[in-house]
Amino acid sequence: MRFLQSGRVNFWEATVIYKNYNSTSRGTMLVSKHCDFKKSLYYPGTAVVKTKLGYMKNSSFSLKHLILNEDGKICAEGEDVVVCYDFGENKTFRIPNELRDILEKF
Protein backbone atom coordinates (compact mmCIF):
# COMPACT_ATOMS: atom_id res chain seq x y z
CA MET A 1 0.00 0.00 0.00
CA ARG A 2 2.95 2.32 0.58
CA PHE A 3 4.02 1.84 -3.02
CA LEU A 4 0.56 2.96 -4.14
CA GLN A 5 0.83 5.98 -1.87
CA SER A 6 4.21 6.84 -3.40
CA GLY A 7 2.71 6.65 -6.88
CA ARG A 8 -0.18 8.89 -5.83
CA VAL A 9 2.09 11.49 -4.18
CA ASN A 10 4.40 11.55 -7.20
CA PHE A 11 1.33 12.07 -9.39
CA TRP A 12 0.24 15.05 -7.22
CA GLU A 13 3.70 16.57 -7.61
CA ALA A 14 3.75 16.01 -11.40
CA THR A 15 0.42 17.85 -11.73
CA VAL A 16 -0.77 21.11 -10.13
CA ILE A 17 -2.75 19.29 -7.43
CA TYR A 18 -0.11 19.58 -4.69
CA LYS A 19 0.74 23.19 -5.57
CA ASN A 20 -2.93 24.24 -5.66
CA TYR A 21 -3.63 22.62 -2.30
CA ASN A 22 -0.87 24.60 -0.62
CA SER A 23 -2.29 27.90 -1.87
CA THR A 24 -6.07 27.24 -1.78
CA SER A 25 -6.83 24.31 0.61
CA ARG A 26 -8.49 22.63 -2.38
CA GLY A 27 -7.05 19.26 -3.28
CA THR A 28 -7.99 15.61 -3.40
CA MET A 29 -9.17 13.13 -0.81
CA LEU A 30 -8.62 9.38 -1.12
CA VAL A 31 -11.97 7.58 -0.97
CA SER A 32 -11.04 4.08 -2.12
CA LYS A 33 -7.94 1.94 -2.57
CA HIS A 34 -7.64 -1.52 -4.08
CA CYS A 35 -4.66 -3.76 -4.75
CA ASP A 36 -4.31 -7.18 -6.38
CA PHE A 37 -1.05 -8.94 -5.60
CA LYS A 38 0.36 -10.97 -8.49
CA LYS A 39 3.90 -11.91 -7.49
CA SER A 40 6.11 -11.57 -4.41
CA LEU A 41 8.45 -8.65 -3.83
CA TYR A 42 11.52 -9.35 -1.71
CA TYR A 43 13.44 -7.21 0.74
CA PRO A 44 15.92 -5.84 0.07
CA GLY A 45 15.03 -5.19 -3.51
CA THR A 46 13.88 -2.62 -5.97
CA ALA A 47 10.33 -1.80 -6.97
CA VAL A 48 9.12 0.57 -9.67
CA VAL A 49 5.68 2.16 -9.43
CA LYS A 50 4.00 3.31 -12.63
CA THR A 51 0.92 5.50 -12.20
CA LYS A 52 -1.54 6.82 -14.76
CA LEU A 53 -5.03 8.27 -14.91
CA GLY A 54 -7.70 5.57 -14.95
CA TYR A 55 -10.95 7.52 -15.42
CA MET A 56 -12.32 10.97 -14.74
CA LYS A 57 -15.86 11.90 -13.69
CA ASN A 58 -17.40 15.16 -12.44
CA SER A 59 -15.55 15.51 -9.14
CA SER A 60 -13.63 12.24 -8.90
CA PHE A 61 -11.02 10.29 -10.82
CA SER A 62 -8.98 7.14 -10.45
CA LEU A 63 -5.30 6.39 -10.62
CA LYS A 64 -4.11 3.03 -11.90
CA HIS A 65 -0.83 1.70 -10.50
CA LEU A 66 1.52 -1.06 -11.59
CA ILE A 67 4.20 -2.22 -9.18
CA LEU A 68 7.10 -3.90 -10.95
CA ASN A 69 10.02 -5.84 -9.50
CA GLU A 70 13.64 -5.27 -10.51
CA ASP A 71 13.14 -7.65 -13.45
CA GLY A 72 10.25 -5.50 -14.75
CA LYS A 73 7.62 -8.12 -13.89
CA ILE A 74 4.25 -7.02 -12.51
CA CYS A 75 4.00 -7.81 -8.81
CA ALA A 76 0.81 -5.87 -8.06
CA GLU A 77 -1.91 -3.83 -9.75
CA GLY A 78 -3.71 -1.17 -7.79
CA GLU A 79 -6.26 1.57 -8.14
CA ASP A 80 -6.99 4.66 -6.06
CA VAL A 81 -10.20 6.65 -6.34
CA VAL A 82 -9.97 10.26 -5.23
CA VAL A 83 -12.45 13.10 -5.05
CA CYS A 84 -11.70 16.80 -5.44
CA TYR A 85 -12.28 18.30 -2.01
CA ASP A 86 -12.30 21.80 -0.55
CA PHE A 87 -10.89 21.32 2.96
CA GLY A 88 -11.86 24.88 3.97
CA GLU A 89 -15.52 24.45 3.05
CA ASN A 90 -15.68 20.68 3.75
CA LYS A 91 -17.27 19.79 0.43
CA THR A 92 -16.43 18.30 -2.93
CA PHE A 93 -15.99 20.42 -6.04
CA ARG A 94 -16.11 19.78 -9.78
CA ILE A 95 -12.75 19.09 -11.43
CA PRO A 96 -11.74 22.44 -13.00
CA ASN A 97 -11.20 22.44 -16.77
CA GLU A 98 -7.53 23.44 -16.34
CA LEU A 99 -6.96 20.40 -14.13
CA ARG A 100 -8.88 18.15 -16.54
CA ASP A 101 -6.54 19.21 -19.33
CA ILE A 102 -3.49 18.35 -17.21
CA LEU A 103 -4.87 15.01 -15.97
CA GLU A 104 -5.73 13.88 -19.52
CA LYS A 105 -2.00 14.03 -20.35
CA PHE A 106 -1.36 11.21 -17.86
TrEMBL record:
The keyword Hydrolase applies. Keywords: Hydrolase. It holds the Pfam family 4HBT_2. CDD domains: 4HBT. SUPFAM superfamilies: Thioesterase/thiol ester dehydrase-isomerase. InterPro entries: 4-hydroxybenzoyl-CoA_TE, HotDog_dom_sf. The keyword Transmembrane does not apply. Belongs to the 4-hydroxybenzoyl-CoA thioesterase family. This is Thioesterase family protein. It comes from Autumnicola edwardsiae.
